[in-house]
Amino acid sequence: MYADVIVNISSENVDKPYQYLVPETLADKIRPGCPVVIPFGSRTINGYVIELSEKPQIDPSRIKPVTGVAAKINPVDGRMISLAWWIKDRFGGTMNQALKTVIPSSKKIKQLAVRTIEPIASREELSSLLAEAVRKHHTAKERFLRELIEAGRLDYSLTVSKLNIAANVIAKFESDHVVRIRSEVVYRNPFSDIDRSGFVKNKLNTAQQAIADEIRADIDAGNRRDYLIHGVTGSGKTEIYLDIIEHVIENGRQVIMLIPEIALTYQTVKRFYMRFGDRISVMNSKLSAGERYDQYLRAKRGETDIVIGPRSALFTPFERLGLIIIDEEHEGSYKAENVPAYHAREVAFKRGEDENAPVILGSATPSLEAYTMARAGLIRLFTLDSRAGGALMPTVHVADMREELRAGNRTVFSRVLRELIEDRLNRKEQTMLFLNRRGYSGSVSCRSCGHVIKCPHCDISMTLHNTGNMVCHYCGHTEPKPDKCPKCGSAYISSLGLGTQKVEEKLKDLYPSARILRMDADTTASKDSYERILSAFANEEADILIGTQMIVKGHDFHKCTLVGILMADMSLFAPDFRAGERTFQLLTQASGRAGRGELAGDVVIQTYNPENYCIEHAAKADYVGFYEEEYSFRKVMNYPPARCMLSVLILSTTEEEAARISEQVRERTDAYLGKNAVKENALQARLIGPADAPLAKARDIYRKIIYIKAVDYSLLINIKDLLAQYGDELPESAALQFNFNGGTVHGTEEHQKRRRSDP
Ligand code: ADP
Ligand code: ZN
Ligand code: ZN
Fold it and tell me: Do 218 and 273 belong to one domain?
């Protein structure tokens, strides 16, 4: 056997691996990630095994043997390499791609200057400037001065991007000699000067305490488990995380806290900073390669205890990892888009298991995957039913838009929504209008009865193409668009849509004096405008916020007591087996925005399908009811998490080639399944397609897709490996891409049952 060994893991292309012979005596010790001693030129040096193979790449007589296993070498690098190997194996791609995912590049390190804003004016002068800003309703200045007085000094880029203060406002304070701006090249914690002495942590309520106690007890007993905290928005999940994190770091171990980037706001980070001070470090996608590498080294040297960040923070090289938390575990952003398309939840379970660190998942709307695991007893489930601090859950109204049409209301706002908007304008409270445009493009539905045309084979909505044909992107089934609704005969059948701009215009016609903010792809095109619009709304600079970007965490809009959801059912008909789940999540999370403060809230869900189970359960805030119906749908249709699913994307510069390769993929898979029928439980696997991918052609590349569903994840891995070999033989003009969709490290429920009954 031969081992590919690298000597410097942090260089751009993970260097070139060198091949060594594994002597018989070491064969059972050497694994990917294993540190080894090797002869290198005339010297003897250390390296890491990244892969094992049976094929020599050069003349075997010239391959030198590994000298031995290295004893004193940083184990964390080895752990990350074996994690990379596992990722490559589970999710596809090359070892080099996996290593790049796990280890940041050390090249191009450029120390960036960090700018800080420091006051020159005295505290009294600042206070009187603040009083003046308040009097004159200069909200931005007010926000700036308040934060400056509290923090003592401010990080320049955070102030502009997260606190939403325009650069010219800061420049004016600078020219008026109120503040000065300093540039430094050293790393500084952006919050390091906030005075934390007056900080008092919340005392957990009984429900929170019960959960925290159980998890702490498991940790103290060395009883590693994984957990899911299912708690409604505002139920105090974050407060529980803080409590357990504190316990873990008191025990001398380290914590990775994953939060979707979109929820990683100034307020959220500050909450962690107030509790843990300098021991936290924050990652985000805006860091340069150099800054990321700097953070990486700080973690490796043990200079931080807690890292907070999106998906990639999972690869923080802590030596003494003691806990991984994934907040908003259902978020789509935890799945990587590029190869290797890993899911952070899966990798977290693996890393947690390897390093003896528990994993806590948290969500108001857990993914089907997580909840299924919890139900199967693979992870421990905790539930929080009410909001912390006594805030009430909002009252939900469902407006049947077919009813509105019948009653002669042709506007986009239902009568109940208009009534409530007027009421809020009178009471000087705020309204959020969510326009659910997810999956809107192309589904064909009836405005009179709400019927949506679905594929007879897949139960997934058909997509209208320019040709006038409707196509199923799962199986390729095609039929012409009907002129009349097949259900009620109405001629009002088409792919309908509604834009935010349109909603804004109509709203202005109805309420000319209302202050309206709009958040969509147009208004958020410039950098940081997303956060700017949200903080303007949080600062009550507008009465109504219209948005397509649905879920917003980290901001509590205390004055927002009404949430209207327009076209709630749009996302139901996205050509995706998760469409129902996404809709339920969207409606629940959007509803959670209403009444977070002392004031009670209302939610209006406008729909053509009030009897749809996703809408019904969302309106009742009944997660479990939703889960049960959704899971039985997945089971009947063999979708994840009832089955594991591998999608194979076939890419080619010509359509003929794409079709030819797709056939090859199908034949090879069928042959494999046939040949291994008995051994591999092939009857439990099914191949669907090929069909045009949802994006059938992009940048002149033709895209076809094949789905393979199976009970066993390992069967899909074998098929992936087999097809990857074929992929390697393809000409330059074509490629295969693999994507594991759903299915968990722990396997499907059925698979688990079988495993448990195995002797
Ligand atoms: P979640 O993470 O479930 O959305 P949070 O932990 O953010 O919930 O809590 C929601 C709000 O309630 C926050 O403003 C938080 O400060 C407050 N809160 C949570 N737990 C407590 C508690 N035990 N005592 C007082 N306030 C609390
Ligand atoms: Zn109809
Ligand atoms: Zn179909």
Answer: yes
Note whether residue 756 is domain-resident: no
**Residue 396 and residue 372 in one domain:** no
Q: What is the DSSP letter of 268?
A: H
* Residues in contact with 134: Cβ distance below 8 Å, sequence separation at least 6, in sequence order: 142
Q: Is the pLDDT of residue 92 over 70?
A: yes
Domain span holding position 699? 644-741
Residue nearest to atom 4 of ligand 1 (CA): 234
Q: Specify the residue with its C-alpha closest to ligand 1, atom 20.
A: 236
- The pLDDT-based confidence of 270 (bands split at 50, 70, 90) is confident
For residues 442-451, average pLDDT? 80
Cα of 445 from ligand 2 centre, angstroms: 8
Query: Under DSSP, is residue 122 helix (H, G, I), strand (E, B) or coil?
Result: coil
Q: How far is the CA of 496 from the centre of ligand 2 (A)?
A: 13
- Any atom of ligand 1 within 6 Å of the Cβ of 431: no
Question: What residues contact 397, with CB distance under 8 A and at least 6 apart?
Answer: 416, 420, 602, 603, 604, 605
- With respect to residue 463, please indicate whether it lies within any of the assigned structural domains: yes
Whether residues 369 and 452 fall in one domain: no
Q: Please report the atom of ligand 1 found closest to the CA of residue 203.
A: 23
Q: pLDDT digits over 218-261, tens only?
A: 999 999 999 999 999 889 999 999 999 999 999 999 999 999 98
Q: Are 623 and 230 in contact (CB under 8 A)?
A: yes
Helix (H, G, I), strand (E, B) or coil at 359: strand
Q: Count of domains in the chain?
A: 5
Listing DSSP states for 642-687 in one string gives: TSEEEEEEEEESSHHHHHHHHHHHHHHHHHHHHHTTTTTTGGGEEE
| Distance (Å) from CA 493 to ligand 2 centroid | 7
Phi, psi (rounded to 5 degrees) for 401: -70, -20
**Domain end point (choices 72, 102, 132):** 102
Q: Are residues 319 and 257 in the same domain?
A: yes
- For residue 680, the model assigns a pLDDT of 45
743 neighbors 713 (Cβ within 8 angstroms)? yes
| Any ligand 1 atom below 6 A from CB of 553 | no
Say how many Å lie between the CA of residue 446 and the centre of ligand 2.
5
Helix 237-250 with 266-276: angle, nearest 10 deg: 40
296 and 346 belong to one structural domain: yes
> For residue 736, how many other CB atoms are within 10 A of its CB?
22
